[in-house]
């Protein structure tokens, strides 16, 4: 039997701002407005350069949701010559493209015109559904309203944006909630065909947060959720697990197909205590029955369908060709 192909993307992580309007009880990422809360263009350029130097193909822009709703943030934006944070993000996506990296932006809840504007400079985008349940951990977070999240994912489908979503496991949801969340995502994909992958991310407690002492999902339950996802989701939608937070070898054996972004040069700024394993170490631990294959942040079927903006066409073609040659 040929080995199973498991995919990953080599990326750099750019946490553009730690300012966020939400107050999730498990969050160790959010910071108040103040020095260092917004990455400046020079800092972004240094990370992009390092990404290019270490062979990355993806610039992952992840940041707090709607930071402009937080008092004082406008002055931070003014310092970089911008009035709108999404305009600033667009500008930095163009910088990434100029360096030869494909932007993938996780911007939180957006309306359709906002998504359309970012889609012009992104190869793919993402928003975790997290859960369809209303959990206590999200009581201070208007952006975690499941209906608002579903509306954003649906708008991305109408706009034909190759999209990543997922579940955060262990934040107070039940097994029935997980099933409902997966069925919701499967339904959105059947309708719009835009879901590339569904991350099953285990909540990892962080010191100084409201859920610092909360238990994580037991290993057996995590495995069962991966199996459930593989049953519920259409086959073409990858089930993704994070190799810096979980035992990827076990979860791949349970049916996971993808390891998401693995960075050779930047940390996971959401879970800074959990370094990514080196790709060679991952390959070894997955064993001889698994072939670990690099992919772009836009999956091949969306490249074939032309679901990317014309701005990105030369780069998508060039990087697709580069990976093809590497894998010959
Ligand atoms: S939305 Fe993200 S950044 Fe904002 S508080 Fe929640 S987990 Fe933290």
Defining key terms:
TIM Barrel, alpha/beta, 9-stranded parallel β-sheet, globular, 11 helices
Give me the secondary-structure topology:
Blueprint: E1 4-15, H1 41-53, E2 58-62, H2 73-79, H3 85-99, E3 102-106, H4 112-119, E4 124-126, H5 146-158, E5 163-169, H6 175-192, E6 195-202, H7 219-232, E7 238-240, H8 248-253, E8 258-262, H9 279-286, E9 290-294, H10 300-305, H11 313-326
Parallel strand pairs: 1-2, 1-8, 1-9, 2-3, 3-4, 4-5, 5-6, 6-7
Tell me about this structure.
The protein is an alpha/beta fold and 328 residues long. It has one domain: Aldolase class I (TIM Barrel). It is 37% helix and 16% strand. It is built from eleven helices and nine strands. Strands 1, 2, 3, 4, 5, 6, 7, 8 and 9 form a nine-stranded parallel β-sheet that branches. The chain is globular and about 60 Å long. Bound molecules: iron/sulfur cluster (SF4).
Q: Sheet bearing the most strands, described?
A: 9 strands, parallel
Query: What is the class in the CATH system?
Result: Alpha Beta
- Oligomeric state, counting identical vs distinct chains: single chain
Number of strands: 9
Average pLDDT reading: 97
Q: What structural class do you assign from the helix and strand content?
A: alpha/beta
The tally of structural domains comes to 1
What ions, cofactors and ligands are bound? iron/sulfur cluster
CATH-derived topology? TIM Barrel
* CATH-level-2 architecture: Alpha-Beta Barrel
What do we call the CATH homologous superfamily?
Aldolase class I
